[in-house]
Each structure stands twice: as structure tokens, then as C-alpha cells.
Write the C-alpha cells for this entry.
Amino acid sequence: MLNVVIFGPPGSGKGTQSEKIIERFGLEHISTGEILRTEIKSNSDLGKIAASFIDRGELVPDHIIVGMLENKLNVLGAVKGVIFDGFPRTIEQACALKMLLHKREEDIDVMINLEVDNAEITERLLKRGETSGRSDDNLETIEKRIRVYECQTAPVIDFYKKEGTYRGIDGQGTVDEIFERISAVIEVCMV
Ligand code: AP5
């Protein structure tokens, strides 16, 4: 069993790298952003609530996100491990994840932080916004997402440093170069 948190600011490449990790290591992917966007598309009650936060670049409240994650873990069959993408995003979420995994006699094996500077992530997200149709990929909301990341999410780094599972990775370069850096970290964890 290998549980990985892929972490970093908006646009740091969490989703892009998760796809490659799944392919190479066969892990299950849980992306809270993707789950929320699916709920929004289906116009569910949860989707309506989530949209109001996402469109403003704010975090969806912890109790909603933690409940959603718990439901997802409850229906998880036998898997080789999970890559958590976009979760946890607050200290409260990190504590809740630890508790939920402990019930399964598991823990997070490694937290991989993709380090990318603000100019690069802004450029990436503005470019994606031209074609993605994502309501939060516009300059005003991107700047808000970065501020929210710095205030509410970056403190999660210290949580995993204290746990001894933190690994910082240079998240700039080509997608393949970054993936090789990530793979080297995961391979060490699998030994
Ligand atoms: P979420 O979907 O998690 O968005 P995010 O964290 O802002 O991250 P992104 O999906 O924008 O970027 P990414 O890091 O995955 O990068 P990607 O690979 O796509 O969350 C959206 C919203 O949902 C949040 O703002 C919040 O409101 C809510 N939410 C979600 N989870 C929550 C939680 N746990 N608690 C509370 N609220 C929550 O890459 C970005 C772009 O860059 C792509 O176009 C890609 O092709 C390109 N790219 C990737 N790598 C490279 C590279 N090396 N070089 C050049 N371009 C690259």
C-alpha cells in the first residue's frame, strides 16, 4: 500500500503529474477538484454550493470536503494505494485525512510538493483558461487562488515536515523531467 499526497499551488502540475503516476505506479487517483467539477456539471446540491466558492477562488468548507472524501474512501475497493490530488488543503483536512487513514490502518507515505513560482503558474493557468472553460482560470480568480494557497494551504507543508514525509520537488521544466524527479521519490518509498 502506498499513499501519496501530490501538493502545490494552483497550476503547479498536480493533475498532469497524477495522470503519469497512475499510469506508471497503478495508484488510485482521488482529485477533490475533479469530484467538485463533476458535481457542478450534474447540477447537484453539492455542486451548487461548490460553484459559489470555486468561482470566487475560495476553498470549499472543510466539513463538506472531508465528508466527500470519506464517502470516496468508503467505496474504495482493493487498491495498491491512492494519490490524493488537491487534498488536504488546510491543516484541518490534513488531520482528518490522517484519522480516516488510521481507521484503515494506513497513513500517508509521502507528500510531494511541486515547487513552481507564481509567474509560471499564472502563465500556465491563463493559457489553460483559453481552452479549458474552467470558470476559475481568469486573472482575478487566479490571483485570489494564489493568495488563498499562501494563507490557508501552504501551512500544510509544515504538517508533513513534522510527520517526516515531506519531499519538495522542483516543479519547473518539462512534464517528463518533473515526472522523473517524482518517480525517483516514489520508487524510494516502494523499497
Ligand atoms: P483544483 O482542481 O484542485 O485546482 P488547483 O489546485 O487550483 O489546481 P489546478 O487543477 O488548477 O492545477 P494543477 O496543479 O492540477 O495543475 P495542472 O496539472 O492542471 O481545485 C479547484 C477549486 O476547487 C479550488 O480552488 C477550491 O475552490 C476547490 N477545492 C478543490 N479541492 C479542495 C479542497 N481540498 N478543499 C477546499 N476546496 C477545494 O496544470 C495546469 C496547467 O499547466 C495545465 O494546462 C497543464 O497542461 C500545464 N502544465 C502542467 N505541467 C506543466 C509544465 N511542466 N510545463 C508547462 N505547462 C505545464
Notes: The two ends are 12 Å apart (CA to CA). The first helix runs from residue 14 to 25. The CA atoms of residues 32 and 87 lie 6 Å apart. The chain has nine helices and five strands.
